[in-house]
Design goal:
The complex is a heterodimer. Chain A is an alpha+beta fold. Chain A is built from 12 helices and 19 strands. Chain A has helices at residues 3-29, 71-101, 109-125, 130-190, 200-216, 276-311, 380-388, 423-427, 445-449, 466-472, 487-527, 531-564; strands at 39-45, 48-51, 54-57, 60-67, 220-223, 229-233, 236-240, 243-244, 247-254, 257-264, 269-270, 322-324, 348-356, 362-369, 393-397, 403-407, 412-417, 433-434, 442-443. In chain A, the strands form 7 sheets. Chain A has a 4-stranded antiparallel beta sheet. Chain A has a 3-stranded antiparallel beta sheet with strand order 9-10-11. Chain A is rod-shaped, with a radius of gyration of 39 Å. By secondary structure, chain B is of the alpha+beta class. In chain B, strands 22, 23, 27, 31 and 36 form a 5-stranded antiparallel beta sheet that branches. Chain B has a 4-stranded antiparallel beta sheet with strand order 19-15-14-21. The longest helix of chain B is centred in the N-terminal third of the chain and has 54 residues, at 52-105. Chain B starts with 13 loop residues before the first helix and ends in a 7-residue tail after the last helix. Classes of the chains: A alpha+beta, B alpha+beta. At the A-B interface, helix 2, helix 3, strand 13, strand 14 and helix 11 of A face helix 1, helix 2, strand 2, strand 5 and helix 5 of B.
Chain lengths: 565, 767
C-alpha cells in the first residue's frame, strides 16, 4: 500500500466516473431518439489486495455498460405492435370501404336501387309513355353502373392492398437481412459470454429492426447466448444467426384477379401470418374486401337473375323480330342444368308468343324444359328444336352456344311469357339485366336501344302493366331462392355486415392501440431516458469525480510533504 | 374520453410523458374536429360504423322515405288523370241529360216529324260529342281505353260506334305494396262492350300429360309436395315438388316405385290413375307425408287395402288455356297401344272421331304362311269389331303392319295407326310380335263440328267464321277476334268456356250456326232451344193472346194447324208445340219446326205436297211476328216454290246488343226518325241506364280521388314522422354538440396548459 497506489486508485475512480458521465451524455443525447434504450454503467468494487493481514480494496471498476430493457416485455410489445398494425390496417380498410359504399348519403347504392324501382312505378303511371320506359332503362343503367363502379373501386382498393403486401414482403426481406447481419456483428462485438457489456448501438439498431419487422409480421424472438436472435413467425424460423429465409410474393388467382401470397422462398411454404401489417392487409384484401365483393356479386347476381325471371315472362310495347340470347352454353347437347350457364334453370315450361302485326293474331306455344332428372332431360339443342318447330320462328344455336331466334316474316314479332323454368333468364332471352357479377352487371342492349321492349305487360304485347306491377315492388318481394328474403333484405344484410365489421374493426384497433400503448408505457418506463434522472446521475458522477480529484490533491500534498522531507 | 393507459409505477421517462401529452392533445383535437363537423354538417354520424344500430335504422328509414317519395309522385300524377276523367265524365253526363231532354220533348205522339228530326239531329250531334269525349286524351293517354292507353278507344263505323280498348284498369302504388286503379275503362263508363254471350257449354278439356299443374283445378293450380307410395311391406317417399306438368308427375312416380315393384301412372279424361304391378300382388297405399296435402290434392289418398289398383284420383279439371288443343275438348278419342315385346315395334291406334262408339275394337295378329313381309292382310269382323292382321311372323315389321292397317278401308274409316313415340324414338323397323293384341278404349264425348264454323251478325253484316283450320283455343279466339265482326272473344273467368262480346254499339248482334252445330257446341248460339221467350225482341218478349190461338200454319197438304203460345216459355216449347201437334204427326206430310241451320231463327220445313206453306196470325196476335215467323208488320206469310221441300226461315228475334250510351243514342235517333214509340221508350231506358253508369263511374272516380286525398294527407304525416325518426337517428343535437364543443375546447386548453407547464419543470433549472 503506497500513496502512489492510492493515486492510482483515485485515477481509476476518475476514469470510472468519466465513463459514467459519458453514458449519461449518451442517454441525454438520445433522449429523443425513437427506439433508443437507455444505458446504464454498472460499477463494481475493484479487486482487493492483501497487504499483510489486511485486504485492501483497489477502488472502483466499471463492470459493464448495459441497456435497460425487459426482454420479455419487449417480446410482448412486439406482439402488441403486430396486433395493432394488423388491426389498424383492417380499420383503415373498413373506413375506406364505408366511404366507397357511401351509405347515409344521397348517392349510395340503395338510392340507386330505389330510383330504379321508382321509375318502374312511373311506367305504371304512364304506361303509354316511351319516355317513362326509357327513364326506367336509364335508371337501370345507372344502377348497374353504380354496382360496377363500387365493385371496380373496391377492386382497386383490393389491388392497392395487394401491392402493399408485395412491398411489405420486400420490407420484411430487408429487415430480415439487417437482423441477420446485426446478429453477427453483435455476437462478434460482445464476444459471446466474455463481455458483460452490450453492443449497445448495434442492439439498438437490431431492436429497431425487430420492432419494424413486428409491425409487418408477427414474430417470436429468442436471444441466443451469443447475443444473436432467432426470429420465428408462425412456427417457421426466418432468421437464425445470419441465416435468413427470404420471403417471396407468389402470384395466384383469386376472384378473377391476380394477387400475391407470401411464401418462404426456400421451402415454397405458404406462410400464414397471424399479426402485423401484412396479415392485416391479407385479411382485409381477402376477407373484408374479397368477402364484400362476394356479397356484392351475389347481390348483383340475385338482382339480375330474379328480376330477369319476372321480366323475361313479360312483354313490351313491341316484340322482337329477331333475338339472340345473351348467355351461351358450353355444350348444346349437355343437360341444361349442366351446360355451363351461370344461372341454372329448373324443371318447368315457358310460352313463346308469335304476334302478327297485320292480323293482330297471337300464336302461343308452350315449350317444356324437362329438368326432372328422368328420361333424358332437356338440352339447349332440344329446346331450340322445340322452338324451331314453332310456326313462324326459326331457331338455331350460334357458335357461342347462344340461342338465335328470328321471325319468318316481317309482320311477325316474338315475345315470351309464363316461364316457370327460369330458362329465359338463364340464357338471357328477353331479359333486362345482363351479367352475373357486380363487375359485369349491365342492361340488355336490345332494351337500351329500344325501351319500348321494357316488358311491362303479362297478357300480350302492350296489353297491360301487370308485369310492371310486380317489377315496381320487386325490391320488397320475398324471393324463394333466397329463403323468402327480398332484395331489400339482402341489401340491408350487406350493409349491416359492412357496418358491423367496420365497428368491430375500429373497436379491435382501438383495443390493440390501448394495449400497445400500455406495454409501450411499461417499456418506456424501463428503457426511456429521464433527463432529470440523468442530471442527478451526472451530479453524482461529478461529485465523485470532484471528491476523487480532491483525494488526489490530498495525496499529492502528502507526497509533496514526503518529498520535501 | 381519451384512452386510459396505466401510469408506470416505477419510473416515468420523458418520452412516455411526452407521448401521453401528445396522445391527449391529438384526442382532444380529433374530438373537437368531430364536433365541429357534426355542427357544420348537421349529421351526428358520418359513417355508419360510428353508430351501427342507429345507422342501420336510418338506412331503412331513408329507403322508406325514398319509396314514399315515389308514392307521393304516383298519387299526384294519378290525381291529375282522375281529375281529367272526372271533368270528362261530367261533360258526358251533361250531354246525356241534354240529349234526353231534347228527345223527351218530342217523344209524344203529338210531335211533328220536323220536331222529331230536329231532336234526332241534336242527338246525332250529341253522339259525336260523346265519341269525342270517349276519345279524350290527357297527357298523351286516352282516358277511356282501358290498359291499352295508346289505342284510340272509339271509332265511328258507319252508323255504329266501335270500342277498341279493353276492360282492364291501370294500377299504381298508393303505398308500398298497395295498389289502386288509376283509370276507368270505356267498357265501364260507356258500356262499350256488350254483356258477354257466355258459352253455356262446359268445354271441360281432357287431361293430357302436357298439362301444367298450374292450369289444373280450374286454373287455381296444384302445389305438390311429397307423398308415400307403399305396398304395406315396402314404401317410398316421393317428392313431387319439382313437378310442373302431369308428365313430370308420371315420370317421378314411376321412377320412385316401392323397392322391387313397378308403378304405372295413367290418365282418364279428368284424373290420374296409379297402379302397382299386379304380378307382385299386395295392395297399393298412397299416404300423405308429414301432414302434407299432396295425395289429397291429387285425390289419390288411399289407406284401404284395394289390391294393386289402379287408384283413380279426383277430377283435376284443367282450365282452358290459349294452348289447349281443340281435339282435347268435347271428349276423347278411343285408342290403344299395340305393344310388341321387342324394340321399335310399338303401334298406337287412335280413333278419328271422339266418342265411346269406337271403344271395344280389338286387334289380333296371326301367322300366315302364305303372307310374306310387306304383304300383310287385314280383315275386319263387324260382328265382333275385331281386326285381324295376317303377318309373316318373324319378318313382318311394325312399319309393315302400320301400312297394312292404314291402307285397309274398314280400318281407315274410323282409325289411324301411328308409331308409338311416348317414351322412345321409334323407327318402326322392329319385328312385330305375334302375341301382340289390344282393344280400343277411353273414347268419350262427341265430335266437335269444326268444319261448319259459325256465323256472327253484327249490325247489318253477317260474317262466317271458319274454324276448320283452328288447332287450339287461341286459334279459335283469333279467328273470332280478327274476323271483321267486331267481337271480343275470351276464355271465361272459370276457365271452362268461351265468352263473346260485341265491340259495336248501336248494332244488333247474334251468333248462329253455319249449317252445323259449332256455335251450339261452344254454347255461343244466341238463339237456342233454351232461349226464353221473355228475352226475345230486346226483352219485349212474345205477346201471346190471353184467350184463343195466336197463329196458324197451313201445311202444303192443306192441313191447318193452330197454335196458342200462352204456356210456352222457351223456344223449345214453341218447337214442341208445332212438332207435337196432334195433327202433325204423319211423317210424310208433317211440317217440322227446328232451329235454322244457318244463322238463327225458327225454321219450318214441309216435305209434303200440294200448296204453299203459310203462316198466319190469328186473333190479332203478335206472337208469330214476335217469334220471327212473320215479318214485322205482316200478318200472313206464304212460302211456295218448285222444290220437294219448302222451308220457311224465321227472323232472328233474339238479337243481342251492346248496352252502351252510344247504343242508347243511336236507338233514340233511329226511333225518333221512324217515330217508333216503343223504340223511344226503350231508348229512354237505355239512356237512363247509361246515365246511371256514368254517375256510378263519377262516384267511383270521386271516391278514388277522395281516397287519394286521404292517402296524400296520411303520407305527408308519415313523411314528417319518418323524417323525425331519421333526424333522431342521425342528425346532430345542436345543443348537445355545442356543449360538447365547449367541453372539448376547455379540455384542449387544459391539455395545452398542462403540456406547457409540465414541460418547463426540470431539475436543470435548479442546478
Amino acid at each position: 500500500m503506497s500513496l502512489l497506489s492510492s493515486i492510482n486508485l483515485a485515477n481509476n475512480t476518475l476514469r470510472a466516473q468519466q465513463i459514467g458521465m459519458q453514458v449519461t451524455g449518451q442517454n441525454i443525447a438520445n433522449a429523443n431518439t425513437p427506439g433508443y434504450i437507455r444505458e446504464e454503467v454498472n460499477f463494481k468494487a475493484a479487486r482487493t489486495q492483501r497487504i499483510g493481514n489486511l485486504l485492501l480494496g483497489l477502488g472502483v471498476q466499471v463492470d459493464s455498460i448495459v441497456q435497460k430493457s425487459d426482454k420479455f416485455l419487449d417480446g410482448r410489445l412486439r406482439d402488441a405492435v403486430s396486433e395493432q398494425s394488423s388491426a389498424e390496417v383492417e380499420e383503415q380498410t373498413y373506413t375506406q370501404l364505408e366511404a366507397l359504399y357511401g351509405e347515409l348519403s344521397d348517392t349510395d347504392l340503395s338510392s340507386s336501387l330505389n330510383n330504379f324501382f321508382n321509375t318502374i312505378s312511373e311506367i305504371l303511371n304512364q304506361p303509354e309513355s316511351e319516355a317513362a320506359r326509357n327513364l326506367a332503362v336509364l335508371k337501370g343503367k345507372t344502377l348497374a353502373g353504380d354496382v360496377n363502379r363500387l365493385a371496380t373501386r373496391v377492386g382497386t382498393l383490393r389491388k392497392d392492398l395487394n401491392d402493399r403486401v408485395e412491398k411489405g414482403v420486400d420490407n420484411v426481406n430487408r429487415l430480415l437481412t439487417t437482423i441477420g447481419s446485426l446478429n453477427i456483428r453483435i455476437a462478434n462485438t460482445e464476444g459471446g459470454d466474455l463481455s458483460n457489456s452490450d453492443a449497445v448501438g448495434l442492439r439498438d439498431q437490431r431492436n429497431q429492426a425487430l420492432t419494424e419487422l413486428a409491425k409487418l409480421i408477427d414474430i417470436n424472438v429468442t436471444e441466443q447466448p451469443s447475443g444473436a436472435v432467432t426470429v420465428y413467425s408462425s412456427g417457421d424460423f426466418l432468421v437464425l444467426d445470419n441465416n435468413v429465409r427470404q420471403l417471396i410474393a407468389q402470384p395466384k388467382t383469386d376472384r378473377g384477379v391476380t394477387i400475391v401470397e407470401p411464401r418462404i422462398e426456400k421451402t415454397d411454404f405458404a406462410i400464414q401470418f397471424n399479426g402485423g401489417e401484412i396479415a392485416g392487409l391479407i385479411k382485409s384484401r381477402d376477407e373484408a374486401l374479397g368477402g364484400f365483393l362476394d356479397t356484392l356479386d351475389s347481390f348483383a347476381s340475385t338482382l339480375a337473375y330474379e328480376f330477369n325471371k319476372v321480366f323475361s315472362s313479360g312483354q313490351g310495347l313491341t316484340g322482337y323480330s329477331n333475338i339472340t340470347s345473351i348467355n351461351g352454353v358450353n355444350s348444346a347437347t349437355a343437360e341444361l342444368d349442366d351446360a355451363g350457364l351461370q344461372a341454372t334453370p329448373v324443371n318447368g315450361t315457358f310460352d313463346v308468343l308469335v304476334f302478327n302485326t297485320q292480323t293482330n293474331e297471337t300464336q302461343t306455344t308452350t315449350i317444356r324444359v324437362d329438368l326432372n332428372g328422368l328420361n333424358g332431360d332437356s338440352t339447349l339443342q332440344s329446346v331450340v328444336d322445340d322452338l324451331n318447330s314453332v310456326s313462324g320462328i326459326t331457331a338455331s344455336i350460334d357458335s357461342q352456344g347462344r340461342v338465335v331466334l328470328a321471325s319468318n316474316s316481317k309482320d311477325q314479332r316474338i315475345a315470351f311469357s309464363k316461364d316457370s323454368s327460369g330458362f329465359l333468364a338463364a340464357v338471357g332471352l328477353n331479359t333486362f339485366f345482363t351479367g352475373s357479377t357486380a363487375r359485369d352487371l349491365g342492361v340488355n342492349k336490345d332494351i337500351v336501344a329500344d325501351p319500348t321492349k321494357f316488358a311491362a305487360s303479362f297478357n300480350g304485347i302492350g296489353e297491360d302493366t301487370q308485369a310492371a306491377v310486380i317489377l315496381a315492388s320487386f325490391q320488397d318481394r320475398a324471393l324463394t331462392s333466397q329463403d323468402g328474403s327480398s332484395l331489400s333484405d339482402l341489401y340491408d344484410r350487406m350493409t349491416s355486415t359492412i357496418t358491423q365489421a367496420s365497428t368491430i374493426a375500429k373497436s379491435v384497433a382501438e383495443g390493440s392501440r390501448v394495449f400497445s400503448e400500455n406495454l409501450n408505457g411499461q417499456s418506456l418506463a424501463i428503457s426511456g431516458v429521464n433527463i432529470d434522472e440523468e442530471a442527478i446521475k451526472l451530479l453524482r458522477y461529478q461529485r465523485v469525480f470532484q471528491a476523487s480529484a480532491r483525494y488526489i490533491q490530498t495525496l499529492d500534498e502528502l507526497l509533496s510533504v514526503l518529498v520535501s522531507l | 374520453m381519451p384512452r386510459i393507459t396505466p401510469i408506470p409505477t416505477t419510473r416515468v421517462s420523458d418520452s412516455f410523458a411526452q407521448q401521453r401529452l401528445l396522445t391527449q392533445l391529438q384526442y382532444d383535437q380529433t374530438q373537437l374536429l368531430r364536433v365541429q363537423q357534426q355542427i357544420s354538417t348537421g349529421q351526428r354520424i358520418s359513417t355508419a360504423s360510428e353508430d351501427a344500430p342507429a345507422a342501420l335504422r336510418a338506412i331503412s328509414l331513408q329507403r322508406l322515405l325514398e319509396q314514399k317519395g315515389q308514392v307521393k309522385t304516383n298519387l299526384a300524377t294519378n290525381q291529375t288523370f282522375l281529375g281529367a276523367t272526372d271533368v270528362s265524365l261530367n261533360r258526358i253526363s251533361a250531354l246525356l241529360n241534354d240529349a234526353r231532354g231534347s228527345a223527351q220533348g218530342v217523344s209524344t205522339t203529338v210531335a211533328t216529324d220536323e220536331q222529331r228530326e230536329s231532336a234526332a239531329t241534336e242527338i246525332d250531334r250529341a253522339l259525336q260529342q260523346l265519341v269525342d269525349s270517349g276519345n279524350e286524351r290527357f297527357r298523351d293517354r286516352f282516358l277511356f281505353a282501358g290498359s291499352t292507353t295508346s289505342v284510340k278507344p272509339f271509332d265511328v263505323v258507319g252508323p255504329y260506334v266501335r270500342y277498341n280498348g279493353n276492360e282492364q284498369q291501370l294500377q299504381s302504388y298508393s303505398d308500398i305494396d298497395i295498389l289502386f286503379e288509376t283509370n276507368i275503362p270505356g267498357s265501364a263508363v260507356f258500356g262499350a262492350l256488350s254483356e258477354p254471350v257466355r258459352g253455356t257449354a262446359d268445354l271441360n278439356p281432357i287431361l293430357t300429360w302436357d298439362k301444367r299443374l298450374s292450369d289444373l283445378l280450374g286454373g287455381e293450380g296444384l302445389q305438390l309436395g311429397s307423398i308415400e307410395l307403399s305396398t304395406g311391406a315396402n314404401s317410398r317417399i316421393v317428392d313431387l315438388s319439382q313437378a310442373r306438368t302431369l308428365r313430370d308427375v308420371k315420370e317421378i312416380l314411376e321412377a320412385n316405385a316401392p323397392p322391387g315393384r313397378t308403378i304405372s301412372v295413367g290418365l282418364t279424361d279428368n284424373a290420374l290413375t296409379v297402379s302397382l304391378d299386379s304380378s307382385g300382388g299386395g295392395n297399393l297405399f298412397i299416404n300423405e307425408v308429414a301432414g302434407g296435402k299432396t295425395a289429397s290434392q291429387l285425390g289419390l289418398l288411399n289407406n284401404i287395402a284395394q289390391g294393386t289398383g289402379p287408384l283413380t284420383g279426383r277430377d283435376l279439371n284443367p282450365a282452358l288455356q290459349p294452348t289447349t288443343k281443340l281435339k282435347e275438348l268435347f271428349g276423347r278419342y278411343a285408342q290403344t297401344t299395340l305393344s310388341s315385346t321387342g324394340q321399335n315395334d310399338d303401334l298406337r291406334i287412335t280413333a278419328k272421331t271422339r266418342g265411346a262408339d269406337l271403344n271395344g275394337y280389338s286387334f289380333n295378329f296371326i301367322d300366315d304362311g302364305s303372307v310374306t313381309a310387306g304383304g300383310e292382310v287385314v280383315t275386319f269382323n263387324p260382328g265382333t269389331n275385331t281386326f285381324t292382321v295376317n303377318i309373316d311372323n318373324g319378318s313382318t315389321t311394325a312399319n309393315q303392319v302400320l301400312t297394312a292397317l292404314n291402307n285397309d278401308a274398314a280400318f281407315s274409316e274410323n282409325f289411324s295407326a301411328t308409331l308409338e313415340t311416348e317414351n322412345q324414338s321409334n323407327t318402326g323397323n322392329g319385328v312385330f310380335g305375334l302375341a301382340t293384341f289390344g282393344t280400343t278404349a277411353n273414347g268419350s264425348g262427341q265430335e266437335f263440328d269444326q268444319a261448319h264454323g259459325l256465323t256472327i251478325t253484327n249490325g247489318d253484316q253477317t260474317y262466317t267464321i271458319d274454324l276448320s283450320s283452328a288447332v287450339t283455343i287461341e286459334d279459335l279466339l283469333n279467328r273470332l277476334n280478327n274476323s271483321d265482326a267486331d267481337v271480343l272473344a275470351t276464355i271465361n273467368a272459370t276457365g271452362n268456356g268461351i265468352d263473346l262480346r260485341s265491340r259495336l254499339s248501336g248494332a244488333d248482334f247474334s251468333i248462329g250456326e253455319n249449317g252445323g252445330t259449332t256455335a251450339s257446341q261452344l254454347g255461343l248460339r244466341t238463339f237456342g232451344t233454351a232461349t226464353r221467350l221473355a228475352d226475345l225482341n230486346h226483352g219485349f218478349g212474345v205477346h201471346s193472346n190471353e184467350i184463343g190461338f195466336d197463329f196458324q200454319i197451313d201445311r202444303r197438304d192443306g192441313v191447318v194447324l193452330k197454335f196458342d203460345t200462352n204456356g210456352a216459355k222457351t223456344i223449345q216449347d214453341v218447337l214442341d208445340l208445332i212438332n207435337n201437334h196432334a195433327n202433325n204427326q204423319d211423317p210424310a206430310s208433317r211440317v217440322v219446326a227446328r232451329l235454322a241451320a244457318v244463322g238463327n231463327g225458327i225454321e219450318l220445313v214441309d216435305n209434303g205436297t200440294g200448296g204453299p206453306l203459310v203462316v198466319e196470325a190469328l186473333n190479332n196476335s203478335q206472337a208469330a211476328q214476335d217469334l220471327g215467323l212473320l215479318p214485322v208488320g205482316e200478318t200472313r206469310l206464304v212460302t211456295s216454290g218448285p222444290g220437294a221441300t219448302l222451308t220457311l226461315t224465321g227472323r232472328d228475334v233474339n238479337p243481342q246488343e251492346t248496352n252502351s250510351i252510344f247504343t242508347a243514342m243511336i236507338r233514340m235517333r233511329d226511333a225518333l226518325r221512324s217515330n217508333d214509340q216503343n223504340g223511344m221508350a226503350r231508348a229512354f231506358g237505355l239512356i237512363d241506364e247509361g246515365n246511371s253508369r256514368v254517375t256510378f263511374s263519377r262516384a267511383e272516380i270521386g271516391a278514388r280521388q277522395q281516397g287519394l286525398d286521404t292517402l296524400q294527407t296520411r303520407l305527408e304525416d308519415e313523411e314528417i314522422e319518418l323524417k323525425d325518426s331519421l333526424s333522431l337517428e342521425i342528425n346532430t343535437d345542436l345543443a348537445e354538440a355545442i356543449s360538447n364543443l365547449s367541453a372539448r375546447q376547455a379540455a384542449l386548453q387544459a391539455s395545452l396548459q398542462l403540456m406547457a407547464q409540465t414541460s418547463k419543470l426540470t431539475i436543470l433549472d435548479y442546478l
